[in-house]
Design brief:
alpha+beta; 4 helices; about 120 residues; 3-stranded antiparallel beta sheet; 3 strands; single chain
Length: about 120
């Protein structure tokens, strides 16, 4: 059978083979694949090639520690905006560590606080 030139070159480069060796290896691989297997043998091959992946039966509930610094910042920002927006509408804290919304002159605004992770060098 004729093989693609790219496959031959890839085998030659990756495995440091001559052209003849690469073609022979591709032929050997094709011969191994063309073996007829019974349904039971196919199931065994599939099971053996899947590896040892374990499926989690119950999802983990990750416990988050409250970030007091973010809560303090949101509180200070909320109080600052409250001075301006108080006469125009209500302020709602939607997430005490992340965001709050408020209305100003009939328009809805959302302030979101993001804390990016520090880059490791």
């Amino acid at each position: 059978m004729a093989f693609k030139e790219s496959e031959i070159l890839k085998m030659m480069k990756n495995l440091d083979l001559s052209r003849e060796e690469a073609i022979q290896l591709l032929q050997d691989d094709e011969d191994d694949v063309s073996v007829d297997l019974t349904d039971e043998q196919k199931k065994v091959v599939k099971k053996m090639t899947q590896g040892d992946r374990k499926k989690e039966t119950t999802p983990r509930k990750r416990e988050r520690k409250p970030d007091e610094a973010k809560r303090t910042l949101i509180d200070h920002l909320w109080k600052s905006v409250n001075l301006i927006a108080d006469s125009y509408g209500s302020i709602t804290v939607t997430n005490p560590e992340r965001e709050f919304t408020f209305r100003y002159k009939g328009e809805l605004y959302r302030v979101t606080l993001a804390k990016p992770r520090e880059k490791k060098e």
